[in-house]
Amino acid sequence: MEDLSPLEVRFLQLCKSLPSFDENFYTQSMDLLKEIRKNHLLPDTSSSIGGGEGEELEMFWFAFILYWVRRLSEGYSGKANGVSLCQILRATKLTIVEFFKEMPQFNLRAGSVLVKLYGEDWEKKLEAKELQMNFVHLSLLSKYYKRVYGEFFLSSYADGDKKNVSASIKGNMSNYQRFGWLLFLALRVYAFRRFKDLVACTNGLVSILAIMILHVPPCLRNFSTHDSKLFVRRGNKGVDLIGSLCNKYDTSEDELRKTMDKTNNLIVQILKKKPCLLSECKIEHLEGIDTDGLTYFQNLMENSSSLCTSLDTLEKDYDDALRNKGELDERVFVNEEENLLGSGGLSGGSVNISGAKRKFDATASPAKTATSPLSPPTASPISCNFLCDNVGVAATPVSTTMATAKWLRTVISPLPSEPSSELEQILSSAGREVFNHVIRRARIILRAIFPDNTSDNTQSANMMDSVWAEERREEALKLYYRVLEAMCRVEAQILHVSNLSSLLTNERFHRCMLACSAELVFATHKTVIMLFPAVLERTGITAFDLSKVIESFVRNEETLPRELRRHLNSLEERLLESIVWEKGSSLYNSLIVARPAFSSEVNYFGLLADPIPSLDTVAAHNNISCRGLPPLSFLHKHDISQGQSRDVQSPKRICGDHLNLSTSPVKDPKLAFKSPKLNLSPLPLQSAFASPTHPNLGGGVASAEMAINVFFNKIVKLAAVRINGLVKSLQLSQQIRETVQCLLQQILSRRTELFFRRHIDQIILCCFYGVAKISQLSLTFKEIIHAYRKQPQCKPQIFRHVFIDWSSSHQNGKTGQEHVDIISFYNEIFVPSVKSLLVAVHSASATSKAKQLPEPNHNIDGTGKCPGSPRPPPFPSLPDLSPKKLSPAHNVYVSPLRSSKVDALITLPSKSYYACVGESTRAYQNPSKDLTAINNHLNGKVNTKLDFDNVAIVSDSLVSSSLHRESDSDISAPITTAAATTSNSLLEFKQSNNTSD
């Protein structure tokens, strides 16, 4: 004690306060504490990190140090009597929500120390993202469980109700709900221990609900077997309980019966209850239920004594399991320990736990949802049906997940697990062995993505149950074949060719397709393991590769539910904003070919992507047996390896320089403000995946430039959405908005290196402050950060930790790499690099503004105006892709027209070129009648529960005039009537369902 500093003394006292104090654990924790202090990461002075000062900051560091040691120390992470996360949080007086919100920042700050002590793979060992997602899922499941429990059982009594209920049962009513949750946790520990996904866990909760319907005393029921809404399936013998629950909660009957068998086995093994066939038991309160195939347990919860015994047994069993895994105590969700759970949710950048219940008026801007402005928002009829089939179930994150799983189960699973005859013909046209190569590749890659416990050589948490993994592989395989066939048909039409050998023999293309299919399967089941971007590592591709297929994948699978479209669009945003710019991205391989000026810097810092691993390497790394798979020919192996060398040389230019990055904007002002044309038309896949280093294979400089330009266009569009959001939050002028956008485009074109290994929001924030400074606005960085915190994509680490490599900044006396705050980055790196661009952009903006001021009007009619002079490029027109609220007083929205209706309209040019919003009794029988019906509805002239009395009626002539508007008109104009437009932006009415778990 005498050698310890005051800080270390406080840490020792904290360790001793833990329920399971261990000398070895304390020693390792103290060593980590000293190492962190040695690296000046834990100052004694106050700091803003952790959301507080002094003691609060100290508690955050103590909590993370204990957690890191608990999870990373050899031989201790699985030790009995270990310290759990909840025990650490209780000792440090922190909440779970606070802990997870701050985790990314503390992991980033202590990363260098953790690498030194625990190795380069410390993040994989820590499994922080998995644990955090597990908490999010449990939050959703607990709300879902409480809701469905309340639909069937009573939770409280009013005076005079249920007079025949004994006092003993009254006092223990909440224990029935607790019993169900503890039984669910036992199911997670034993049946779902290797993999935890939201669909399987929801099936588990529904199975437990079925067991409780059979066993909870009838006096606690909130239902009757004659209720046709709860029990919709009936037979000659009574209510089909399993079928009715499956219909109500969108579960699979086969999966539910399997899960019920697992739950029943747990009751036998843990609670030592003897099962019997319900059909052989005479239970009076179960009359009206078809008992065939159902199991009953005597004395499970018939009275207070049996219930308490079962609760004590489940509690003890879970305590033993918790000590061995040392993770989150999942009982907190029924213990109602609000002081430990914390307030608020993990959203807005940490983890988004909102699902279908997100408000539609918040989705007017693509930046406010997972919907990207870069991919088509087309909603298919079938996806809408899946979300609306069961009107009796509120749209919640869990119910939306189950509806999406229903799509995978009913649309994809029935498909054959082999290529269709049409796809086989397409593949065979590219060569005799292409068909065999596709089958072999798909089996190997999907087995690498979905490993089972016999083929996985990674740590135990990433192991999957063999049956579960095989089912997911088959789903991903069928989806891959389905979309591949659709893509090939479209590609052949675009290129006007029948032979697609260049594309079909491209290894990266097929692996991206397999990765995309697998990611959708993971997203459908909401798995905790293999969170994105883990699928990239398993397939050997990079984020830049995957970004090339996402848009085409969405376009070519029309049945894709809205939630999966949002997921892919969200991934595309994540790829564009930061992941593509990370070290080892294939973006740099194309960039140095298209922009040779960057070759020295990219090669010096080792930013190039590694060669794509061969299939044999993937199979060997994942212990995958290739028995029974078609052999890979020598010729095909050679084709795959071409162009994958890491040592990429920059060839001489063989085509025109579309965007000369080396030209000074001061010397050439016209070129300085020439921005990339925002054409987001998808690049043909054959060109997108052509090798940048092999001109003879359709690649070369031209191919690289096309890929880079398409990518830069997407970056500009994404940046425009985020700049627009910040401008509105800061209440800045349109001129400032356009100046910031112009500056960012110039930086992207001429100072592209500023984006290397950084987040695009970091550049955007600096652009705002730079423009504010040179425009002499009274806008501080603090105000910009405050506005940025309100953006849905905000993560504190974005402005707290900006990457800097001092060797590339030419700063005297500073070497190495580190992360600094946004202000330090702005002063040290950003300003010296973009000062000339900033001055030029501001000067051009000011000149343009002055020249566009109206001259004195000498026209007699008073209508004459002087035309404005050229100005910096206007702010990009942002398409309104998400449902838009029609009136602030009513839940009426407009959204893009379904693709099937668009196709129908395009094929009938002799009829109307515009579609009326809303549904017709017949297929667009008459625009005038349709508009009249809609206006009558909005004005309350039809029988409806909603009152639309303040909406004006629009005439047919006004609708017709709207057809001549420009496609890039201002999207911010308010929508106040039932409107119609051209087939490029066809609309239909949607009505929101803002409900929650």
From TrEMBL:
Keywords: Cell cycle, Nucleus, Repressor, Transcription, Transcription regulation. Belongs to the retinoblastoma protein (RB) family. The lineage of its organism: Eukaryota, Viridiplantae, Streptophyta, Embryophyta, Tracheophyta. Residues 721-831 form the Cyclin-like domain. It is found in: Nucleus. This is Retinoblastoma-related protein. InterPro entries: Cyclin-like_dom, Cyclin-like_sf, RB_A, RB_B, RB_fam, RB_N. GO terms for cellular component: chromatin; nucleus; transcription regulator complex.
